[in-house]
## 1
Amino acid sequence: MKYGMMLAIALLAGHAAVAQIAGTRVPGGCDVPVSKRSAETGCYLLATESLESLPAGEVFWHLYAYPTRAAAEAARKDASGTVVESLGKIWLFALAGSSWRPMAGERVAVIGPLPVEAAKMYTARYMEAVFLPNKAMQTAVHQHSGPEAWYVVSGAQCLRTPDDVLVIRAGKGGFVRQGPSMLLTSIGTETRRAVLLVLHDASQPWMTVTSDWTPTAQCPES
């Protein structure tokens, strides 16, 4: 077999994983800032926020959109949160109780309650991911040291764990608890674009690639 024509794509939807071919680097790797993205597809870092504590009670991820960054920053002055520009929108991301609202802004989604375990310090890691459609891209098998949540802007995704198959389509959000091995795949005929959060114990790595599990359940085609 002639060497040099081996192709395998494994791009991370919010995870700094390595590709399925050993030694191949995923575009962005979820560590490269989105301002320095090297390809249209891949996973890129939007922002990180260090948190000494979380709101009392149940914690939700709130996503609001604004016409300008100045409007988003003005809303943030009256609330906690992080302003980012991603996937054609200017967002305010905040972690708060279910009834929280900023003074202004278009509410896009409220995702939760997030199953966060107690820690001395937390890191909220916000990312964006763009995957080609039709199962063309997937992550490596990996784990997180905190819950991961997504809001899918376009297309659809399928997350497999040892216990479940979770499908999220455009305009919807979802989350998975920390701990289980998982693999995320693009599905459907439209490019999958999503913003995502991993809210983790700051003393632990946010993501670990693992080889302890291989999915047997199948994702739908769309």
## 2
Amino acid sequence: MKLSFSPASPFARKVRIAAIELGLIDQIEFFPAAVAPGQANDEYSQITPLKKLPVLILDNGDVILDSYVIVEYLDELAGGGKLIPASGPLRWKIKTDHSLLQGALDAMLLCRYEKMVRPEGLRWQAWSDDHWNRAWTAMARFEPQIDAMLARPLDIAQIALACVLGYADFRFADCGWRKAYPNLDRFHQKMLERPSVTISLPPAA
């Protein structure tokens, strides 16, 4: 299997953590892909017209895209029900939590693009503020849930939350999430005890 990858991508990081935790990391070959807005990448567009990271290319050439779907595939490959519960209320709780966190990452990435990629004269501050608020209030949603999250086995929602917080450190180092959300800070420190989380940290900004 081959996985498109950038060390700065929180979505690719999520898959990397999952692959390590599932014992499948040695079966995956990583290949770099550049997907910056406004920059063509015709070769990668042939793999996925959405030009997003990551995609998983199977040995038979089939392409699986979206980080959650890739983790779901890897979870099934590892026997199923490991990072995503197979059934029951917890399955829907974890899937919903993951969707919220995925949306928070999407919002943070848009803020990053607005500030760093869009020409200064064309930037829309209210739009950027709105997307940052979506990410910030998503973090707040998890602040009172940390004890319950840490009490259960590792799952895709915990991995996604670690990626949100890691991306906040990477791209928004002065946002103050630790002061605002001490339980999230405690959660993040606990997650950093896992080699998969530490190894996959993005490079220094």
## 3
Amino acid sequence: MIDLKKIDRSYKTGAAQTWVLRHIDLNIREGDFVTIMGPSGAGKSSLLNVLALLDDEWRGEYWFAGEAVHALNRKQRADLARKRTGMVFQSYHLLDDLTVAENIDLPLSYKNLPKSERQAMVADILDKFSIVAKKDLYPSQLSGGQQQLVGIARAVVHKPSLLLADEPTGNLHSAQATEIMELFRTLNEQGTTIVQVTHSEVNASYGNRLIQLRDGWMTSDTATAKAEVRPS
């Protein structure tokens, strides 16, 4: 599904160049459930943003379902992301002026679906996440955990082929966290490819593959059992 070749990402910090991703070669197969782990500053969120097509300032080759992302313009990348991916953000990224139901409907609004079908899909996901009573509230009226649930519901409502999650249970209590990870497992079993960034060993145990990053380098991948260690 995804093939990254020699992906580099850096930021200008004054006169210096700070590298956050170095020579990342990564192949993600359809149906994988990948966990990305590593210490703070390892490049985990940077890699997730590249995969999610949220970041354009990288160098290298990125192939998504046979399509050369590196050859697409910004609008084409955004269209691809809207159609094929769902993203769960650590900081929610809900729109303050939309209700819970309207936030969840947002990904569906980009698809050519009848309004009645969209409403039915939103109603189904509201019920699945037990937040029907919150549907007319605004994000500012929700707790952090509730906002996270809405963010996850929005990410999965349009049944994306690729789901990306940055610390998806970081703001949830343990019972909610287990429920969300079980949902991710079910989605994966139904064919959704999942990539999560987490510090949680429990969350990592739901996946079938673990990638370790350090200082922007991919140091291990259980799919290959072969380390790509930073040169000395």
